[in-house]
Amino acid sequence: MKLSQMLTALIPGAYARSNPRIDLPGAVVVVTGGARGIGAEVSRAFAAAGSTVWIADVDADVAATTAAGVPGARSRRLDVTDRAEWATFVAAVLAEDGRIDVLVNNAGVMPVGPFADEPEATTDLILDVNVRGVLNGMHAVLPAMVDAGRGHVVNVASMAGMLPLPGMVTYNASKFAAYGASLAARREYDGTGVTVSAILPSAVRTELASGADLGGTLPTVEPGDVARTVVRSVRSRAARTSVPGWVLPGWLAVDQFVPESVERVVRELVDHRQAMALNADERAAYLSRIERQAAEHAGDDVRDDSKAATR
User: Fold this and answer.
1) What family is this protein classified in (predicted)?
2) How far is the C-alpha of 21 from the C-alpha of 34, rounded, in Å?
3) Which of 234, 251, 268, 291 lies most in the core, judged by the most C-beta atoms within 10 Å?
4) pLDDT tens digit string along 228-266?
5) Domain boundaries 23-310, corresponding CATH code
6) Burial classification of residue 279, based on how many CB atoms lie within 10 Å of its CB (0-12 exposed, 13-18 middle, 19 or more buried)
7) How many alpha carbons lie under 13 Å from residue 64 in its C-beta half-sphere?
8) pTM confidence score
9) Nearest 5 degrees, angle CA 213-CA 215-CA 218?
10) 200 and 242 in contact (C-beta within 8 Å)?
């Protein structure tokens, strides 16, 4: 890089301006986990801006119902943990619309509770959906974006990717990984016209947080707040943005300057162990779905292992 280019790169906003602009009207946007919660709101927000939206979700029927209420949206089943399904999905989008301008890796699961009680199938599901799903998504779309010379990937991580909490050992691990993968991919694809951003919501009022006494350790936000931040990232291309915006810089300051002895006392005062004792009745529907998905996912792994053993 020449000296003049280095000096230009120091100007605020230079990174976003150095990458090809993506106009939302007419942009082709893929949203994983788009059937419910944050994903559904993200799909609506992009559609409202004039984008062509593809809703991808492992629950095809729910995705189709959501897509029917989003102008111009289409839906297709996608298990984000399966690279072969990703290849088929991306091929279908490219055949229909010719390109993918924005990928929103939003699919995620959040079983929480005492780590020692967590079944192996649940551990596998969390890591495969929250980590492998993000990696698979980037792996599937980045080649076409690089060939086109432009594109934007948004990985919906979490403040749980920076702020460790009791009852969330595996979930924390998965979101730390998603956040790290986002920053690493951002660096690797710098200069290609393709950008990667991480969104770190605090506690979001969706089914994932059902049964939780929200409002203790983290502030609460609505899915629409996260959706608006995701859409804004197409313009800002910010490396990382928390929702609300002050949470990330606030936590970084605490982590850097507040002694652990003080932090421990404050954590107890705000009851940071909420994830260890959620309301089982309020969370029953979500846990039932997660148990089903974990069992199905475990069954898929067994079948894949059997195929590999016979090759």
Assistant:
1) Belongs to the short-chain dehydrogenases/reductases (SDR) family.
2) 24
3) 234
4) 999 999 999 999 999 999 999 999 999 999 999 999 999
5) 3.40.50.720
6) exposed
7) 5
8) 0.88
9) 115
10) yes
